[in-house]
Write a structure and sequence with these properties.
The protein is an alpha/beta fold. It has two domains: 2-185 and 386-408, Glycogen Phosphorylase B (Rossmann fold); 200-383, 3-Layer(aba) Sandwich (Rossmann fold), CATH 3.40.50.2000. It is 37% helix and 16% strand. Helix 10 links the parallel strand 13 (302-305) and strand 14 (326-329). The two termini are 25 Å apart.
Length: 414
């Protein structure tokens, strides 16, 4: 089989599928991407350059759409070069972030499976979560146009895939039957509890191997979308209540989702200026290796995950798989996974005091929390295990390559 992947990043959500397809030497796997770094065995990687940047004077509504068009154009040109060399894929799998916009114009007869991560809405999800009152009309208009490339993909793709029910629900109802809900999958064999785990990060000269209470927070970027500001407001309360506890904060000091501060400060800088606490017990790791990240989870006494109603982070599910006691915000999509008091605890996103209180609850009653930790991992094993979900993804791909779109219409892969 010839498989063509498309994504701005590499390998992104497709790492497990790539691993599956490259196990068979008869398969030919090609990945068109905007990321020049990294490589994977068995994968022919074509890294593109954008023809230009979005001009500063571009219409504000169109900037995101134009950027998506540029990625789509570059991807289509790379795909055309493949076609001219005789490469015709049996299946195209791409992220709906611009790369798949024009792929049907290059390969009109090849089925396209779009990874549909998010559909923007003015109300009821992320955009208005921390805002009071109606949004400016200009912002509503911008969001409407921001969905342009996604709507094109919804129309032109053969089928879509979305990782959670919450994310699926954001898309227009008329397209729901065209999108299957299948999570990427968690490698539960690797992400598993280790009761003997000790946290030592040599390159930071950080040794917490003798610390009994380690509170962890993980986010790709230290930003409001993942509740960083609310967690930082809770830090003084946590340290006051737990005089022997240490807090480990994993994430880059930058914004991945949402807006940056207008004063060019990072959110970490802003929060450090606003609040006072014992800095000897709060450790910012920045970006760390996957092995150290796993140790952070395995050594965690209580793990905090806060988010706007937005895309669900892999890290929350990975933490549960590693046996963490996850204290999550009472927001979708967290509530799709965590049931309060069963496989984790829920808190008010906006209440630093409640975050500290629930950490107290966890650390004061470790024996009572053992069952919750066990059920957290059981949830991942039952519903999000890669060994269960990868076959569902492959089944969907096989259905597409066999041109069984009619039979797929009402077929469930969940």
């Amino acid at each position: 089989m010839r498989i063509l992947f498309l994504h701005r990043n590499f390998p992104a959500q497709f790492k497990h599928l790539i691993n599956y397809f490259t196990q068979n030497p008869d398969n030919q796997v090609v990945f068109i991407t905007g990321r020049k770094e990294d490589s994977l065995p068995g994968v022919t990687k074509l890294a593109y350059n954008l023809s230009r940047k979005v001009p500063d004077n571009a219409h504000r509504y169109l900037r995101f759409f134009e950027e998506s068009i540029l990625h789509g154009q570059a991807s289509a040109q790379a795909a055309l070069s493949l076609k001219n060399q005789g490469f015709i894929p049996d299946i195209i799998i791409g992220h709906s972030w611009g790369n798949t916009l024009f792929i049907k114009d290059v390969f009109p007869d090849t089925p396209v499976l779009c990874y549909l991560e998010w559909f923007y809405r003015a109300y009821g999800s992320d955009v208005d979560f921390e805002k009071q009152g109606p949004l400016p009309v200009n912002l509503e208009a911008l969001l409407r146009v921001k969905n342009s490339h996604i709507l094109i993909d919804l129309y032109s793709c053969d089928h879509g895939i979305s990782p959670t029910k919450w994310q699926h629900s954001q898309f227009p109802p008329e397209y729901h039957d065209k999108i299957s809900i299948i999570h990427d999958g968690i490698n539960t064999d690797h992400l598993k509890p280790d009761p003997e785990a000790k946290l030592v990060i040599p390159h930071l000269n950080l040794d917490l191997s003798e610390v009994k209470e380690i509170i962890t927070y993980v986010s790709r970027g230290l930003e409001p979308y993942r509740g960083f500001h609310k967690f930082m407001e809770a830090v003084p309360h946590i340290l006051e209540r737990r005089p022997n506890a240490h807090i480990v904060i994993v994430g880059e000091d930058r914004v991945y989702y949402g807006s940056s501060l207008p004063n060019n400060k990072t959110y970490k800088q802003e929060m450090l200026e606003k609040i006072s606490f014992d800095t000897s017990r709060v450790h910012f790791t920045g970006r760390i290796s996957y092995d150290i990240y796993l140790k952070v989870l395995q050594a965690s006494s209580a793990h905090i995950y806060l988010t706007y109603p937005f895309v669900l982070s892999w890290s929350m599910l990975e933490a549960m798989s590693a046996g963490c006691l996850v204290i999550g915000s009472n927001t979708p999509p967290v509530t799709e996974v965590i049931k309060d008091g069963e496989n984790g605890l829920l808190v008010d996103f906006f209440s630093p005091q409640e975050i500290a209180e629930r950490i107290d609850e966890v650390l004061n009653h470790p024996d009572q929390m053992k069952e919750i930790r066990i059920k957290a991992r059981e949830t991942i094993l039952e519903q999000y295990d890669l060994k269960k979900l990868l076959p569902k993804q492959i089944e969907l791909i096989n259905d597409l390559t066999e041109n069984s779109k009619l039979s797929m219409k009402n077929k469930s892969y969940t």
